[in-house]
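Example record

The entry below shows one chain as it appears in the dataset: sequence first, then structure tokens.
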Amino acid sequence: MSNDLIDRYLDDLRDDVRDLPKRRQDELVAEIKDHIDSALAEMPNRDEVSVRNVLERLGTRPTSRTKRVTGWGSPGRRPASVRSQQ
């Protein structure tokens, strides 16, 4: 179950950054996955409660973390797909 929670979280993250170039999407997902793995390594158990706690610290949905990491929502910042259409 705990791996399912992580997979779902990372799928949501990838969905949130779908407008970024594929390489950047992969980098962000890998960075967040590494962060999750590191945080879980510090926990006494890698059970569902520990996973939920780690994911909660990141944000219940990855959107807020994604916005901080990518600058999404900053003035003048638009997804690559929008910029390429201009």
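Notes for this example: DSSP finds five helices and no strands in the chain. The chain has one domain: 2-83.
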